[in-house]
Amino acid sequence: MPLLPLMFALSTLLLALAFPHPAHAEVLDRIVAVVNDGIVLQSDLEREMSHAAVQIRARGIAPPPEDALRAQVLEKVILTRVQTQRAEQAGIRVDDRELNEVITGIAKQNNMTMSQFADTIRAEGGDFLAIREQIRDEVLITRLRQREVDNRVLVTDQDIDLFLAGQTEADNTEYRLSHLLVAIPDGASSEEREAARAEAEDLRKQLGEGADFASLAVAHSDGQQALEGGDLDWRNADSLPLVFLQAARALEPGGLSPLLETAGGYHLIKLVETRGTGERKTVEEINARHILIQANTLRTEEQAQVQARDLHNRLVEGEDFAKLAEEFSDDPGSRNNGGDLGWQPPGVFVPEFQATLDALQPDELSRPFRTQFGWHIAQVLDRRTRDVTEESRRAQVRGTIHQRKAAEEYDTWLRRLRAEAYVEFRGPDGTAAGADPAPGQGADPTT
């Protein structure tokens, strides 16, 4: 299981370790929300509130009013619940063995054993078992998203061609943006759209008067990076929504965009800084050929080594490499090409084979050597440096398009899942304080 999708959770956990949780008066646990056939407890909400407060403080963001933060965090908990419930319905499970492997990987990233990681969390006053279950939820959600969204996204060569055709020139600039979204609910009335615009314009006015962008994002943004102060981190030009990119190009660092309208809502972006990445990319390729002799039911390992030595001697004496490869080589992929492996970049071959090729000059013949596949005789035919800037760009664009499509599909899927969920909020006395089957959240193209 790749650990990359868990990096956000990991960063939150590490921040939680670095800053002890604030002390809270002990309260009796109660239900604060019913989510389908599950519940959210007051203790769940308080724990997530503590994590959010730690993260906000670590980023140097002025904390928003507690009721605004609580609303943001509660919605995040609800979205987590509906996704883990969906994962369970889909039969996705993360057993304790798999979970231990993930946690061990996280611990290794921080030069710890799993036991040391758990002890560190406990020493800082954290609840290791609760964090363990948070990591399980992250893995479940990642697998659910891969199955129901990411794996269904297709990027064709035509998609790439159309994307590149729309670029007048390659933009190798990277942008760091902060983002604030006032979302528009699906099927919103004109009155609701006007109310959202008025809210966004008021927020922009506050920013123009010196309000802190990150604090307003935490308190008011409907974007998925709200609790990070709207920080989108570094993104290359291709990975930004076009409306964001066009606005960012018109800004100086520290500048604030005008109100940007999309189908999902009204956006404000702040250009934090830019950096350039304009180097051309090259790769050192090698064209080599080989003869492979393997041990089998009719030939022992020692006999394979002897035959390889005999073939080497015949090559030294001037026999044709291609003819001997076609007659004797056990490599079905290259035998019919006279042993020719074609042009290959570094890293394609197993380390022992690559190291032998790296030590040879063009036309030089190796002595017989062994890898996991058997005994080889290799010869380097030529080397070249090839410009792969265009190939690299197409690969980057493919990834960018996939990321955009997956983000759009995930946002639509998540809003639909949230709309289909039954959510009932509970007051302090435990009675229903209102049902909210679908909050007014619009599409967020920045995920």
Salient structural properties:
447 residues; alpha+beta; Triger factor/SurA peptide-binding fold; Chitinase A, domain 3; 3 domains; four-stranded antiparallel β-sheet; elongated
Summarize the topology.
Blueprint: H1 7-18, E1 31-35, E2 38-41, H2 42-58, H3 66-89, H4 96-109, H5 114-123, H6 128-148, H7 157-165, E3 173-183, H8 190-208, H9 213-220, E4 231-236, H10 242-249, E5 260-262, E6 265-276, E7 282-293, H11 301-316, H12 321-328, E8 340-344, H13 351-358, E9 369-371, E10 374-387, H14 389-420, E11 423-426, E12 432-435
Antiparallel strand pairs: 1-2, 1-11, 3-4, 3-6, 5-6, 7-8, 7-10, 9-10, 11-12
- Spatial order of the strands in the main sheet? 2-1-11-12
Architecture of the largest domain, according to CATH? Orthogonal Bundle
Task: State the CATH class of the largest domain.
Answer: Mainly Alpha
Continuous helix count: 14
The residue-averaged pLDDT reads 86
Count of structural domains: 3
Fourth-level CATH superfamily of the largest domain: Porin chaperone SurA, peptide-binding domain
Uncertain segments: 1-27, 437-447
Q: What is the makeup of the main sheet?
A: 4 strands, antiparallel
Q: DSSP strand (E) fraction?
A: 15-25%
- Structural shape: elongated
Question: How is this structure best described in words?
Answer:
The chain has 447 residues and is of the alpha+beta class. It folds into three domains: 4-148, Porin chaperone SurA, peptide-binding domain (Triger factor/SurA peptide-binding fold), CATH 1.10.4030.10; 173-277, Chitinase A, domain 3; 282-387, Roll (Chitinase A, domain 3). The protein has 14 helices and twelve strands. The chain has helices at residues 7-18, 42-58, 66-89, 96-109, 114-123, 128-148, 157-165, 190-208, 213-220, 242-249, 301-316, 321-328, 351-358, 389-420, and strands spanning 31-35, 38-41, 173-183, 231-236, 260-262, 265-276, 282-293, 340-344, 369-371, 374-387, 423-426, 432-435. The strands form three sheets. The protein has a four-stranded antiparallel beta sheet. It has a four-stranded antiparallel beta sheet with strand order 4-3-6-5. Strands 8-7-10-9 form a four-stranded antiparallel beta sheet. Strand 11 and strand 12 form a beta hairpin. Helix 1 crosses helix 2 (42-58) and helix 2 (42-58) crosses helix 3 (66-89). It is elongated. The two termini are 21 Å apart. Residues 1-27 and 437-447 have low confidence and may be disordered.
